[in-house]
Structure formats: structure tokens, C-alpha cells
Amino acid sequence: MKTYLRKIMAFINDEEGASAIEYALLVALIALAITVGATTLGGKINNMFTNAAGKLP
Fold this sequence. Notes:
Blueprint: H1 2-13, H2 20-55
């Protein structure tokens, strides 16, 4: 029984792997990349429609 308790306590105290803060930073970086990409793409699409509208009679 003591070995199981030691294994459980070792598992609880194990701090390897990503923490919640690291996951939050990863999500923030992904959101930033999506925002920058969408802004750039949105500007290009806007220019495309503006040029197309300018060619219409």
C-alpha cells in the first residue's frame, strides 16, 4: 500500500511537461498569428474588390 501511495505522491509532485501558463502563451501566439494573417489577407482582398469595382461601368 505504501508503494502505491508513494507512486501517487510522486505523480502529483511531478512538474514536467507544459504548465497552464505555457499553454496560455501558446494560444496567445497562435491568436496573434491568425490576427496578423487575417489583417494582411483582408487588405489584399479589399484591394482586389476595389480594383474590380473600378473597372465596372
